[in-house]
Write a structure and sequence with these properties.
The protein has 161 residues and is α+β, with helices and mostly antiparallel strands. It contains 5 helices and 8 strands. Helix 3 packs parallel to helix 4. The radius of gyration is 17 Å and the shape is globular.
């Protein structure tokens, strides 16, 4: 019976971890660009975090500085809730969703036109929610969408290798 109970507990904990349910409070200490930040948790451990599901213009790319400024205006030096995904990206950064009170910062960056919805890495409700936010920004010509044919960062990176 104890083994069965332990196994069930392990499965539940593992399932929550796989979904990125484990969250913690972090202090934002540096905004690297429009989709990457550095935080410290309550144990003073540093995290370099890539915002999940978005892709912001690069440093040196048109609208890159404004994207970074938008993220700074939302969370610079603030305490935020961070929900990390189980795996890191290819640059060994943590990947996560950020929340300031009830505001989904990742979604807000898209809605303000400060980032693209990175469709390859979202699914389900998040996909639909981010897609609606991007459509809203495009329709209202917000942020980078006020310019004709803004270049997505993944295209810009390919051209500037």
């Amino acid at each position: 019976m104890k083994i069965l109970l332990f196994t069930l507990l392990f499965i539940v904990v593992f399932a929550y971890h796989r979904q990125g349910i484990a969250s913690s409070i972090h202090k934002v200490i540096y905004i690297y660009d429009g989709d990457t930040i550095i935080t410290k948790d309550t144990s003073n451990r540093e995290y370099k975090i890539r915002l999940a599901g978005i892709d912001a213009p690069e440093d040196g790319q048109h609208y890159g500085d404004k994207s970074t400024d938008t993220l700074k205006s939302l969370i610079s030096n603030k305490m935020i809730k961070v929900v990390l995904e189980p795996k890191r990206d290819r640059y060994k950064r943590y990947v996560g969703r950020l929340y300031l009170n009830n505001l989904d910062i990742n979604k807000e960056m898209i809605k303000l036109g400060a980032a693209w919805h990175e469709k390859r890495y979202t699914k389900g409700k998040t996909y639909r929610s981010f897609l609606k936010s991007e459509y809203y920004a495009q329709k209202n010509r917000l942020g980078l969408w006020r310019y004709s044919e803004p270049m997505p960062p993944w295209v810009w990176r390919r051209l500037h290798k």
